[in-house]
């Protein structure tokens, strides 16, 4: 009986993760939410995506205090070197703009940078089902989400997704 319950729990957990992984568009709530840019202006997420229309985009949700985010940065830089034709958008979950901007500089992150206004438990985080950082989302040239949920151990999956979109 315990084995059956354990299998059922595992199936439900996998099913929940798969449903998040298969999402192909952002919710209206996510699209309307504003994020701060490095000039302290508020920009709607839909306008950030619009800026990259016609391009494949890798979105990384991260924070300067996140050990797993920092540990994944060499893999991210490798990804950028392998896929230079892809646009990279970084969305920080930092609590202060000073720490966020210092993190961008310290880690020499190349791409467009934004910061969520209400961090990990806020509107934007909830709207994208954020449960872990770093979190990677791949958006194809048509604006459709090709990979909704990848974490720091999923770079093979991210590379495969990007290769399939060429």
From TrEMBL:
Name a Pfam family for this protein. Thioredoxin_8
Tell me, in one coarse class, where this protein mainly resides. Answer: other
Q: Which UniProt keywords apply?
A: Cytochrome c-type biogenesis, Disulfide bond, Redox-active center, Signal
Q: Supply the SUPFAM superfamilies for this chain.
A: Thioredoxin-like
Amino-acid biosynthesis as UniProt keyword: no
Q: Indicate the segments forming the Thioredoxin domain, all copies.
A: 24-166
Q: What is this protein called?
A: TlpA disulfide reductase family protein
